[in-house]
Automatic annotation (TrEMBL):
Record key words, sorted: Cobalamin biosynthesis, Methyltransferase, S-adenosyl-L-methionine, Transferase
GO biological process terms, semicolon-separated: anaerobic cobalamin biosynthetic process; methylation
Pathway: Cofactor biosynthesis; adenosylcobalamin biosynthesis; cob(II)yrinate a,c-diamide from sirohydrochlorin (anaerobic route): step 8/10
Organism: Nitrososphaera gargensis (strain Ga9.2)
UniProt protein name: Probable cobalt-precorrin-6B C(15)-methyltransferase (decarboxylating)
Chain residues that bind S-adenosyl-L-methionine: T24, G48, C49, G50, S51, G52, D71, A98
Length: 195
């Protein structure tokens, strides 16, 4: 098995990657998964599955449950399927806009929101409507504008345990004089529970 551990945070380099499709980097991914509070048998939706790194981790964390992955980019869908095969994981990968696909999916224990293009508020409202009571939602945002709309949606939905965390990861790089830390762009992460 490629990842024979219980803990999330699979190294990025273990995934198939392409230039065109983004990936949620391992450190950010591990934090997002911890906030989703998953257990075996849980069901989950990954909105904007990109390279499929979160989809794969959702499958490993919810063994025996059902995972649905959505992306409107054909290349992302193909890459996600490739990575699922690589890790021996199984999810239903659906090509389409979250706004069109979500209404057809069942209620789940956890929703990861990684892409909200088109209408952030609508995607978050639909995502939250798919949560079982006590279910968890995690929304990753990079743009301040997306964060603003996401927060407005979360406040209107009257979710419980709302937490906002900004994460700035720095990674070491060797330079001629030693090792320096290089910061990546911050990720703003909203997490909450359906009351
Ligand atoms: C930052 S990437 C997510 C990376 C992914 N979590 C991973 O682990 O590789 C965001 C993805 O969301 C998709 N996306 C954005 N808005 C979407 C929408 N409204 N419906 C479906 N997919 C969407 C994009 O095509 C992109 O692949």
């Amino acid at each position: 098995m490629l990842w024979d551990y219980r803990t999330p945070g699979i190294p990025d380099e273990l995934f198939e990657r392409t230039e065109e499709v983004p990936i949620t980097k391992e450190d950010i991914r591990a934090i997002a998964l911890s906030k989703l509070r998953l257990r075996e048998g849980h069901s989950a939706i990954d909105i904007g599955c990109g390279s499929g790194s979160i989809t794969v981790e959702l499958c490993l964390q919810t063994k025996g449950g059902s995972v649905y992955a959505i992306d409107f980019d054909q290349k992302a869908v193909e890459l996600t399927k490739k990575n699922l095969r690589k890790f021996g994981a199984n999810a239903e990968v659906i090509l389409g806009k979250a706004q069109d696909v979500l209404p057809k999916l069942p209620q789940v224990d956890a929703v990861m929101v990684g892409g909200t293009w088109g209408d952030t508020r609508q995607v978050i409202e639909l995502a939250a409507s798919k949560l079982k009571k006590g279910g968890r939602i995690v929304i990753d945002t990079i743009l301040v504008e997306t964060m603003y709309q996401a927060l407005a949606a979360v406040n209107e939905l009257k979710l419980a345990e709302v937490d906002i965390t900004q994460i700035t990861i720095s990674k070491a790089r060797k330079v001629t004089t030693g090792t320096m830390m290089l910061a990546r762009n911050p990720v703003m992460m909203i997490s909450a529970t359906r009351a």
